[in-house]
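User: Hey, quick favor. My workstation is busy. Could you predict this chain's structure for me?
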Amino acid sequence: MKQNHIPRTRVKICGLTRVSDIAAVVAAGADAVGFVFHPASPRAVTPEQAAGLCRALPPFVTAVGLFVDASAETIDATLEQAPLDLIQFHGNESPEFCSGFGRRWIKALRMRPGIDLAAERERFAGADGLLLDAYEPGRAGGTGQCFDWARIPPDIAPEILLAGGLTPENVAEAIERVRPYGVDVSGGVEAARGLKDPELIFAFMQGVRDGDQRRHQPG
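Assistant: No problem, here it is.
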């Protein structure tokens, strides 16, 4: 994600399960939506459901499919049914595996103790970007917890997608402090697991705009 200027912060809202959620996210101005294909998640959808939700998307909103250590056969079968633009690998997938599906992709990294982000960036150089999420043993994501943003090296921060415990209340601070390429939210805009709240979505987007305004202010 190389750029020569500071753009606005891009926003992905993940874990959508209903057409009404799609409508709210699009109306709020999000750049991307995420569909979870991890059966253990309360936000999981089937390829058939995702295909229907994708039909509700207008042009220029990116459809992202999230997989966690899924087999190549499962991913291929999903791609045959759901018109996904981008794949998000959220497990222990290798760079070679991630690049084998003819789609642009991003790699999620959980911020476990001792992780070397510079080395991981080099290892996953073929990715469109790295998504940094909170680490909790035994969970692939969706923890609702923040991690210490100071652990992100300043030279890497402009390239990453920041996730993990973001809410309408803290996203402006996160953007001001980290200055990421984009942010990713799921539980922080939900009324219940898998059910998005339009008011929280709009509040989150306002928080992003506030953060962008603050990050561009001198000093």
